Records
---
Amino acid sequence: MLRTLRSPRLLKVEVLGGLVVALALIPEAIAFSVIAGVDPRVGLFASFTMAVSIAILGGRPAMISAATGAVALVIAPLMASHGLDYLIAAVLLAGVLQVLLAVVGVAKLMRFIPRQVMVGFVNALAILVFLAQVPELLGVPWLVYPLTLLALVIVFGLPRLTTVVPAPLVAIVVLTLITVLASLSVPTVGDKGELPSTLPGFFVPDVPLTFETLQVIFPFALAMAFVGLLESLMTAKLVDDITDTRSSKTREAWGQGAANVITALFGGMGGCAMIGQTMINVKASGARTRISTFLAGVFLLLLVVLLGDVVALIPMAALVAVMIFVCWATFDWHSIRPSTLRGMPLSETAVMLVTVVATVATHNLAIGVGAGVLCAVLLFARRVAHVVDVRRTLSDDGALASYAVTGQLFFASSNDLYAQFDYASDPARVVIDLSAAHVWDASTVAALDAVIEKYERHGTTVEVIGLNAESETRLQRMRDVLPGGGH
């Protein structure tokens, strides 16, 4: 960041990136306020406080946090049933829960999310952002369409000529000048709702400090905490990949919590990382530091408070074009190329598709990612279950049958283990060699005991050999607690 402050060229990138993000945040924050059922100022102030706070506290430089649709969907029922004070109390509690989850290491769970779930997450969000722009193109004056087309030409074509000025900013300025100078009657940012004219003030929710209040707000706070952390941590990982840098996911987790606490204390609706605005900042504008995130929040506040009348003139067509560009840049087109689909195992493609379909169908990131992870686990278990091999050899004198077991023995693979032995035809002595296997769970211990018990019913002596230390320990410990154990 210090290097950027010393370089006018790099600083210009950060400043312009923050400005473009601020302009794009205004209609988004207003739209999310409508979804949540609150005054537009609640969403706009939340975007300001989240961006400024996370720029200082967060663990992923250049990532944008603000009021989001995911959070708006979670808290909308609470706003409808109990009002703004309860909503702010829930945001405050959600922030505290996020800090606690960060302390216990929730960020470390990110390593259990497969790459194909990440790809599905990115593709689903690109689709959702695009679908959110469709209503802006329906039932509007015909002039909106050529204006949107012109803006698309600018945002896609200008980077091929120069990257001195961010193409989204040029599109916004050009379309605003055209609509104002030509007095064109098209939807503008001002049509989305009233912009605030004062600074946000300190806000303490007026709710009873009782157990009944906690019962009301806790489910919403917990859902908001999980959805916010999931979206933020996955967006942070995406930015890591784009910028080839690493970030502190634990710091990002508690930073999001602290930012939500600060936001609640200023009467904001809370939020989390925004993949659309983050892609504008990182991909379209080329920003890389906390400066752009901080300035996005500052510019947002200055624009709506001091220049609200000017911002209100920006045609929605310009912002729709910018968001469509973001969708295009965000979507992982490589993941759906015919060559990729032919070379990728069917199970990997299935995981990606399940994540996309579940996320788009429910508009809920947590459900989509959960479905993708569950699908990945089931398909992995199925795949690993089929790599267990049991080979039988008979001694020259026919007095000993040896079984060499190879593979990972757990619930999916050990269920078939019982049927891999020739109980009736084997001689009086059997050896089961597990040198090339590993015992993972109680299902395997129970399966081995069942094998031994059936051999004993046939009068056969069974010896299990080759267990590694971990498998031996697990086997003995579980045999002491499993019904019928002790073989």
---
Amino acid sequence: MSLEEAARQLKMAGHDAQVAFDCVGLGDLERAQEHAVTLRAAADAAEVALSRALTDLTPEEAQAEGERAIKALEDA
């Protein structure tokens, strides 16, 4: 997995966290739980990608790859 995938997964987790939060406020606990589960899966996937990057990339490579990842998400 790449840093682009890690960034994408983190963005998805953030979205699911917001939806879960909103659902709690609306009293829709089943939907809140569904989004809490999907945010956890996305966060776990991001953590795997980041752990891999820590072992595979130099700090300079990580910076360049991270910049590319964020740009790619912004362009999408």
---
Amino acid sequence: MKAHDQMYIGGAWRPALGQDTIAVVNPADEQLIGHVPAGTAEDIDAAVQAARAAFPGWAATPPAERAARLSALSDALAARKDELAETITAELGAPLPLSQTVHAGLPVLVAASYAELAASYAFEEQIGTSTVLLEPVGVVGAITPWNYPLHQIVAKVAPALAAGCTVVLKPAEDTPLTAQLFAEATEAAGLPPGVFNLVTGLGPVAGQALAAHEGVDLVSFTGSTAVGRQIGATAGGAIKRVALELGGKSANVILPGADLAKAVNVGIANVMSNSGQTCSAWTRMLVDAERYEEAVTLAAEAVLKYAPGERVGPLVNAKQQVRVQGYIRKGMEEGARLVAGGPDAPLETGYYVSPTVFADVTPDMTIAQEEIFGPVVSILRYEDVDDALRIANGTVYGLAGAVWAADDEEAVAFARRMETGQVDINGGRFNPLAPFGGYKQSGVGRELGPHGLAEYLQTKSLQF
């Protein structure tokens, strides 16, 4: 791997223009594992200029050739899958099996899917006497989070490249080593200089400079709603396009007659995966009054399978640990019944939080309204189906969710009324080609599949 003290700009590894660095810490043992440059506005400017210079040539590259480069990128990621998984485990703290299957495995499939899309997508169509062209939007500023560091990079960079855009990536400061490995993979894939650029740095400095840069045509951001609001305001001032994938408070709705044990167990597993650090996690479990206490018992038993340090990793840093512990204390203060876990750290070393389950949660409680981003499940009681819908839709978020019912038709009927971007029906599996994104304050735009590619295109019509 290249030295950690370099950034990738214009097809070459180079030192940062400034002297400041960012420490990278393993959240499982709190040990320092490296430093990366704290990029400045000047570094961002250099990367944007490189992307602008490369844009005309890459935009004019035939889609079949862009597809070939993306296929090579997928192959390069697959070849380094073990190294990527180990790096993600080191800087994020995810258990290695999760890093191997999800964190390092899924991006290989997503990159390959965009290779196929680039080769087959209809970038031109005829509508009456008009020829309609779908053209790349330009230079993309991609700002990615730490919770799925490689997946979120690929989910932005791959469709942008497929569309013919060039990219400047500013990864999360907690997980920058994964981004450096990804940059090496773009080298191995043979991308022309300047098509992909990497600047590591802090959000308020490098991230803000990227979002505000006049040479950036679209900003794609994944992270908190608060930061997304700031980026949207910055981009709005320049009439610049944005794609925002933000927070969530997704409902796991268990309708009367559903397989309760399966719904509860899958629901608990969904939240515990990645230590609850998943924007689409089903953190609110909704159960009818008649079976409520049975569901609470099942949930309390199910969460015991997720031992910190084994099946559940730490949170990404000390700040997140304190934040999630504060939410657990807030739930107890507001009257929720603690049936598993609690605010005390389960291990002496590492930023761990006990997998926690609350019962007797009411819709107005803080833990039922705000995104916690940790291994915390709130179980809410509903009286009838309309009440369940009211509760499910009763937050400012609308990213994902689940519905369990005696048959798929009943579940689909309920899902159609949910104000959310993606709903799993009776345990439906994640589809990397389906559009991912939210309603309300969960964001603007969609990622993955053809809908994700469309975010990076603009439309021109030629009249004859």
---
Amino acid sequence: MSHEDAASTASVERTPEKDTRFFGQPWALTHIFGVELWERFSFYGMQGILLIYMYYTVADGGLAIDRGIATGIVGAYGGSVYLATVLGAWLADRLYGSERVLFASAFVIMAGHIALALLPGFVGLGVGLVLVALGSGGLKATATSVVGTLYAADDVRRDSGFSLFYLGINLGGFAGPLLTGLLQTTLGFHWGFGLAAVGMAAGLVQYSIGRRHLPDAARRVPNPLPKKRMPLVWIVAGAGAALIAVLALTGVIRADNLAVIVIAATVVAAVAYFIVILRSPVITAEERSRVWGFVPLFLTSVAFWSLYQQQFTVVTIYSAERLNRDLFGWEMPVSWVQSINPVFIILLSGVFAAAWTRLGRRQPSTPVKFAIGAIVMGAAFLLFLPFAGTGANGTPLVAIIGILLVFTIAELFLSPVGLSAATKLAPRRFTTQMVALFFLSVALGTAVAGQAATFYDPADEAPYFTVLGIIAIAVGVGLAFSAKPVLRLMRGVR
């Protein structure tokens, strides 16, 4: 960037509402857009082949783990990614600021992908998933918070800006499974994991160039931890790591109960977080009311993600066993199904962003958007029912494409809106940690998705899709009828 561009950026940071250089959004959005694109390339590229790597036979390059246990591990891992946002958010709010935690987290993610690519068998799986989970958790909460610093609280572009941010995520999410899946089917799983590491390295290079042009607010530590409390932090961290090691060595934490443990840990973390924020003496009565208004959104989000995140468990199994993947005599990789949803996000996120901008104050309120998202997600599960009982590879590819289109529509009503709502409803001293609360709803939903997938039976799938679809619809309808009282709690935030 030239000196003139840097000066222009500094000016824009003082008056962000006047900066419209990136599709009507602040130019600084491009830097977070870019690093998220490459991080999602690596994340979804790896996740596209992760489940089949675990349950495929050794002869096929896999680890031959029982399929039910493998789906639970995927759910636990996915939940841990979002659970780790708590740690990332705390580090950002109390010690280092969002931008610095984001940068360090990207390095941890790359190390995790390198471990999956180079370390053999279960050692590589364990080390790799732990590092990717920790790094992705740190990056997720902080990247969203940094985007929030680009907008004034009443800037009507905020929701559309988050939708464009979501576009960057899904450009990476589209390319990742395609390329890692292609390498997996031609060269082997570890080549696919290696490509994910290369993608994260590209993201680090891009972000290193642009990070210095982000606003100072992105580096600010909103609630600094007193230095005298640092020894206690190290003691707690060491004790926590030791406890996890002891529980694993004594068999309390096992591969077959990981999802349940993550569910329990997430519930405890979410309840504790809400209590800490609501009882904090540094927040105002208005801020406290807004946090209460976030509670029903949190619960609806859990229900939504419990279904949506089954793309990486049930939908993967469905793609391998129930989907006709024949393309003119060539069988496409299982992981390619994971690229369908990002295609629709790429096509529709701009449409949603433009719609919210055009509607302005007339757009549906946040609770109504959440309700619609849950209802549509439930309907997507019911769309599997016409194909129940059609046998092995009996579902046409066009059917899964249509179902995942409905997944996408549901997602665009809830996910980017949820990120935006977390920043709008957050007390000033808990900005990043409120974003972490939203991600805790994703963590809980993801872990539930992994545990629920253990009950999926391709030979008798109608009850599974029916029950979960109806539950999600009921949750959405309940929130729709509660929209007005929720809005009153939100104190002017829509």
